[in-house]
Amino acid sequence: MTATRQPQTLFDKVWDAHVVTRREDGAELLFIDRHLVHEGSFHAFNKLKEKRAKVRRPDLTIGVADHYVPTRTRALSEVAPDIAGMIRQLDDNCRANAIRMFGFDDPRQGIVHVIGPEQGLTLPGLTMVCGDSHTSTHGAFGALAFGIGASEVAHVLLTQTLWQKRPKRMRITVDGATAPGITAKDIALSIIARIGADGAQGHAIEYAGSAIRALTMEGRLTLCNLSIESGARCGMIAPDETTFAYVRGRPLAPAGDVLDGAIAAWRELTSDADAAFDRAVLLDGKDIAPTVTWGISPEDALPIGASVPDPAAMDDASRASHVREALDYMGLAPGQALDTIRIDRVFIGSCTNSRIEDLRAAASVLAGRTARVPGLVSPGSHLVKQQAEQEGLDRIFIAAGLDWVGPGCSMCVGMNGDLVPSGERCASTTNRNFKGRQGPGARTHLMSPAMVAAAAIAGHLTDVRPLLRSAS
Amino acid sequence: MKPFDRLTTSACALPLASIDTDQLIPARFMKRSRADGYGQFLLHDMRFDETGAPRPDFPLNADAAKRAEVLVTRRNFGAGSSREAAVYALVDFGFRCVIAPSFGDIFASNAVNNGLLPAKVSEADAEEILGLIETTGAAVTVDLHDCLIRFGNRNYSFTIDPIWQTKLLNGWDDLDLTLSLSGDIGRFEQRDQAERPWARLPDRPD
Ligand code: SF4
Question: What's the CATH number for A292-471?
Answer without folding.
Answer: 3.30.499.10
